[in-house]
Amino acid sequence: MNPSSPQHHDADWTAERAADLYGVDYWSAGHFQVSATGLLQVRAEIGGENCTVNLIDIVRGLQERGLPMPVLVRIENILDAQIALLNQSFARAIAQSGYRGSYRGVFPIKVNQQSQVIDEVASFGARFGHGLEAGSKAELLIALASLDADQGYIVCNGYKDEEFINLGLMAQKLGYRIFFVVETPAELPLLIRCGQNAGIRPRIGARVKLSSRVSGHWNATSGDRSIFGLTSMQLIDLVDELKANDMLDCMEMLHVHLGSQIPNIRDIRTGVMEACRYYVDLAREGAPLGNLDLGGGLAVDYEGSRSSHVHSMNYSLEEYCLDIVEVVMSALDLHDISHPTIITESGRALVAYGSVLIFNILDVTRFEAHRLPEIVAEDEHENVHNLWEVMATVNFARAQECYNDALFYRDEICDLFRRGQINLRSRALAENIYLEILQRIKTVIIGREDEYPDLAGLKEGLSDIYYGNFSVFQSLPDIWAIDQIFPIMPIHRLDEAPSRRAILADITCDCDGKIDRFAWDGALHKTLPLHPLVAGDEYYLGVFLVGAYQETLGDLHNLLGDTHVVSVRINADGNFDYVKEVEGDSVADVLSYVEYHPQTLLQKFRHSAERGVRSGKISPVERQQLVELYATGLRGYTYFER
User: Cys bridge to 580: 148, 182, 478, 567, which one at CB 3.0-4.6 A?
Assistant: First the structure.
């Protein structure tokens, strides 16, 4: 359906059509739905019953608690559901296939290091033995403090210095099941030496580079040119060195990383098959192994197209689990090798769904004529009269001709203005007429745009700009950096037809602070269907699937800081609790991040204001008002406050 077409504005519009337009059923994995009254709802299954909460009710509750927009809302129920779904899906695949090993999940801390997220993964995941992956010393410290010694695995990836290794070894002595994954040849001698000095035999994993290269944004982690992992020759050297030190029995894991956000299931099957070949031959070398870590890769369908597009996925979670189990089992059964514990490091698929960025729209720019006169004054320039005549003759047959003429006369008028031959009022009138011509052309060619290929971009060129109270660079950095797609839609008024088409601009002073690629109606578009603003009423949009990577990658462009963050838990009675509230950065906070001292700034401004009193520019009372305004500004939210 096309929201700019006549049928989009009919009286038969329903909330169900809105759900279909924005693809809610396709990207939300069942966690969100549209109510019959046009409100976007969070859905949670509690005790076998479906419970729903309106997102707009969460927003209103935040306003009552003094937390204005923008806000990042975390739904704890969704994170729990995703952890359970992953583990239960693997359990079903194992039972269905007759697989004789088990499954262990580990969450990569780098995907979302926020303490609320890690605490929930650790506490809820404990029932499944779900562990954590640490790629740095800081992340290892988080993992050790978050998991009990008898809980899930801790997989240590990345570069590991002596301090990192010694901490992990001593934690292993406590009972933590820690795997040190050797990523480069230089790591093994240090690991051996540290283990010998501590009298502890480390659990060693080896990460191997696969020649299989996957599709998608993050395929640089796969293939021969991957920056991490051992080549086949380096893997043989590792085996020989372990044998020479009588430590081959310490090699308990083979680790591969297929890639992140892999949209095509065929690539996953191919990569797992190659990994199994390494596993078979390492077992023949005498390595006990027992654990096959397949890294990340499980995708999220950001665009909801259920395809192999880069922002989508052409498989279900059930298919993903079953394919992995069947490939591993069939490959190892051929050589009579015991089935290992399958480990995956799914991060994106666990945490993306549970976080929603909600913001209000502050203003809109429309590219439409307004206050056109009934006639053009006789003393206006000839080219203004020419534009007026073009406007009066717009029809389908002359659409291209009218467009060409309008563009010509408009450019001529701009040149005249630059040379001072027409005034500002004449130019403004010409611009208004020009916009009206374009709008009329757009209207007459609706439904037959293919007959005018040169006018294909007219609809997007005339779309509105909605100004949102957020920063792309702080809250949605992947949109700016790698053209990531996230589902974006209104969270209310969905029982009304969205009659406008718009791009989104943030409140940074940067031309890159915009969103102009959207997924809806099963495809990618340059504009988003939205509702017209209503004077006096707030209009709220939600950006979904933002729980992976966005919070830590965000920067302080224009010194717009972290948003408020609120964790919500839905209860069985349909109510919800604000479990935790973290206020966003104040202006003073972000100034301190860039090495300013807020109190020093305030003191300097007091002196400047006092000089104003001495010079007679302001009174002492005005000085006090001005200083208080400055101090209030330091305490304030970095985003727009009504």
Answer: 567
Report the candidate in 170, 174, 193, 190 with the shortest Cα–Cα distance to residue 182: 190
Q: Which amino acid is at 80?
A: D
Peptide bond into 70 cis (omega under 30): yes
CB atoms within 10 A of CB 276: 24
d(CA 150, CA 517): 46
- Contact 198/170 with Cβ under 8 angstroms? yes
Tell me how far apart the alpha carbons of residues 641 and 133 are, in angstroms, rounded to a whole number: 39
Instruction: Extract the tokens encoding 107.
Output: 């969450």
Strand 131-134 relative to strand 103-108, pairing: parallel
pLDDT of 224: 59
Whether residue 212 contacts residue 286, with contact meaning beta carbons closer than 8 Å, is answered with no
DSSP 330-381: HHHHTTT-PPPEEEE---HHHHSTTEEEEEEEEEEE-----S--SS--TTS-
- Alpha-carbon span 13 to 495, nearest angstrom: 7
The DSSP 8-state label assigned to residue 127 in this structure reads G
Residue 546: is its pLDDT beyond 90?
yes
Query: pLDDT at residue 153 above 60?
Result: yes
Structural contact between residues 394 and 107, judged by C-beta atoms closer than 8 angstroms: no
187-244 per-position pLDDT tens digit:
999 999 999 999 999 999 999 999 866 665 555 555 555 677 999 999 999 999 999 9
Q: Exposed, middle or buried, 224 (CB in 10 Å: 0-12/13-18/19+)?
A: exposed
Write down all domains in the chain, each with its CATH number in brackets: 99-353 (3.20.20.10), 382-459 (1.20.58.930), 596-635 (no CATH)
Q: Is the pTM here over 0.90, yes or no?
A: yes
| Gap between the Cα atoms of 28 and 23, Å rounded | 8
Q: Reply yes or no on whether the pLDDT at 274 is more than 70.
A: yes
Q: Cα–Cα distance between 183 and 236 in angstroms, integer? A: 14
Radius of gyration of the chain (CA): 30
Instruction: Look at 296-300, 324-328, 367-371, 487-491 and tell me which has the smallest mean pLDDT.
Output: 367-371
Per-residue confidence band for 259, with pLDDT thresholds at 50, 70 and 90: confident
CA distance 559 to 590: 6
How wide is the angle at C-alpha 84 spanned by C-alphas 298 and 32, nearest 5°? Answer: 75
Phi, psi (rounded to 5 degrees) for 291: -135, 130
Helix segments in 376-466, DSSP class H = 382-392, 399-418, 424-444, 458-461
